[in-house]
Write a structure and sequence with these properties.
Chain lengths: ~425, ~150
């Protein structure tokens, strides 16, 4: 662990001008925090970013609100295209989130302040599903762990792990410390995870990728790993989303390569995995063990809710779900199916008719926030099922309920039966 | 470190300047402020943590390794605002999440929670319990106590 004295930080004349208040007191305040972050991370210089994604718009108390309102009052504005993560409210479906009036008002003020500073009201944890996403090789400052791992791994853009306060200060100054995953050498895999014994048919479900992500997070912690032995045709963006989100929950994963699939791994070709790096074999047994660890209820239990869309449901996932729901068999009245998505993807899903079909069979749509973060599910819910490893990881503690990780087919069959159904054949 | 008896001290690097004093509290395991501590009381709420139920308020908190959500910055800043934060935090690793929480609170409220970075021998030299005094400034930082 590097606990030596700070290295010298070199600032440009423009950096010094921002720090000195030449661009106003708001920019100076943001710059003080960027410089402090650079000293903590032992960066020797700052670099430009091309976009930012801010996670600070979820309400965690008065201090977060005071911070952004102070920046706004000092005249700060974002200087790069900036998207916003989920909030604590669903503005398109008022009353859906059951917060007390005071907290609800504070959460709304927080959202307003982030819009006032110039960020786009996207309210999504999956900014990579929106148009204009970052290009490979560009430096960005993204917060929200699943967005970070997706941007680094799938898009090949470069972001360190940013969190509350750092995200908006980067957006205001347009500068970040040259450290962490902005540095090319830190992006080279140091561990190989060999998946060649996992059959393609097992990897042909999104829930299997959540289980795989759980194993990856546990095995690699904060290292950069490369997955080998995966048939490229079974990989798509939604599966990479499931993998990354779960790996960033069970571990501190911010970048994971897939040989023959992700851009930097394709670019490296035969050179990765490098000679002599440790290799671990991942097996279907490990995936089933992960599934069972992310499951706290029992097959046959009464099921009260199903949650899709953590991270936010994509248009492709809506299309897949619509295909399954085509027969219009209704859900059991005791089980509510929730779909969390962004307002932009929901608009596209309406254009395609997917959203209407989901609603026709009884599903409920949530935008701008997520079902595991704020009170949305009925208080009476005891057991819920999900395709999401991240939801399964956080829901038991956040909501005090039992959870089952399952494939889309298992979730729909269970919602229709009103009890937990497992199809072991899809996991072997 | 100074000689046996009388006043002792270890040197450190200041990540967030400030002064504080209180009883030292070593975390037995890494802790995430978000999801692991109560926003309004500063008590450890993580049921899996061995020190579940212990209050961090006014303590000199020793965090050997860091863990947890980036939302922890907001939680620490809120605990500083509500005066239910530790009196100082002594880190064994370069934890940007914890440091940013303290720096943000200093920007908003002018309240300075000292954050110090100690190397291995500095950590090893700290007492396991009892009152200590912490001073952190741009030109250096130290932890002092009477042995």
């Amino acid at each position: 662990m590097a606990t030596t004295r700070s290295v010298e930080l070199w600032l440009t004349a423009e950096d010094e001008a921002k720090l000195a208040g030449d661009h106003g007191p708001g920019v100076a305040m943001a710059m003080r925090l960027v410089v402090a972050l650079a000293r903590v991370s032992q960066a020797t210089q700052l670099i430009d970013i091309e976009s930012a994604h801010i996670d600070g718009c979820l309400y965690h108390g008065q201090a977060g609100l005071d911070f952004i309102e102070k920046l706004v009052s000092l005249g700060a504005k974002v200087t790069v295209p900036t998207t916003l993560n989920v909030s604590s409210l669903d503005l398109l479906h008022p009353g859906l989130v059951r917060l007390d009036p005071a907290e609800s008002a504070a959460a709304r003020r927080l959202m307003d302040a982030y819009v006032a500073i110039g960020a786009r009201a996207t309210w999504t944890c999956a900014p990579y599903q929106l148009a204009g996403r970052p290009e490979a090789g560009t430096d960005i400052a993204w917060a929200e762990s699943n967005a970070i791992v997706f941007a680094n791994s799938v898009l090949g853009a470069r972001t360190a792990r940013y969190g509350d306060f750092a995200d908006v200060c980067a957006a205001v100054t347009g500068r970040v410390p040259f450290a962490g995953l902005h540095v090319a050498e830190n992006r080279i895999p140091t561990l190989e995870l060999d998946c060649s014994t996992i059959p393609d048919r097992v990897l042909d479900s999104d829930a299997a990728w959540a289980a795989l992500g759980f194993v990856v997070g546990r095995e690699v912690g904060e290292q950069v790993a490369i997955l080998t032995g995966i048939t490229p045709s079974v990989v798509d963006e939604d599966r990479m989303k499931a993998l990354g989100a779960t790996a960033a929950s069970s571990g501190g994963v911010a970048l994971v390569h897939v040989a023959g699939v992700t851009p930097e791994a394709v670019g490296a070709g035969e050179a990765w995995p490098g000679a002599g790096i440790p290799r671990i074999e991942l097996t279907p047994e490990l995936l089933r063990a992960a599934r069972d660890e992310l499951t706290t209820a029992t097959v046959g239990d009464e099921l009260n809710a199903v949650a899709f869309g953590t991270p936010h449901f994509s248009l492709a996932e809506f299309a897949k779900l619509a295909e399954v729901l085509q027969d219009r068999v209704p859900f059991d009245p005791s089980c509510t199916v929730w779909i969390s998505t962004s307002r932009e993807v929901l608009a596209e899903a309406r254009e395609q008719g997917y959203a209407q079909l989901c609603e026709a069979v009884g599903a409920k749509l949530v935008v701008d926030t997520c079902t595991y973060l704020v009170p949305i599910l009925a208080d009476s819910v005891r057991t819920a099922m999900t395709t999401s490893g991240k939801w399964a990881w956080y829901a038991p503690a956040n909501m005090g309920i039992n959870v089952v990780l399952g494939t889309l087919a298992e979730c729909i069959a269970s919602a229709r039966a009103g009890r937990v159904i497992r199809d072991e054949s899809s996991w072997r | 470190m100074s000689q046996a008896g009388g006043e002792r001290h270890v040197s450190a690097e200041a990540l967030c300047p400030g002064d504080g004093s209180g009883d030292i509290l070593w975390l037995d395991e890494p802790l995430s402020f978000w999801g692991g501590t109560a926003l309004d009381t500063g008590v450890i709420t993580d049921v899996h943590h061995p020190q579940h139920g212990v209050s961090l308020v006014g303590r000199i908190l020793v965090m050997g390794a860091s863990r947890g959500s980036s939302s922890s910055s907001s939680v620490l800043a809120e605990q500083i605002r509500a005066a239910v934060a530790p009196a100082a935090i002594l880190l064994g690793s370069r934890d940007a999440i914890v440091t940013l929480g303290a720096l943000a609170a200093a920007e908003i409220y002018g309240t300075r929670l000292p954050i110090l970075l100690l190397d291995e021998s500095g950590m090893a030299g700290l007492p396991r319990s009892g009152p200590v005094t912490v001073h952190a400034a741009e030109d250096g930082a130290s932890v002092c106590w009477n042995a």
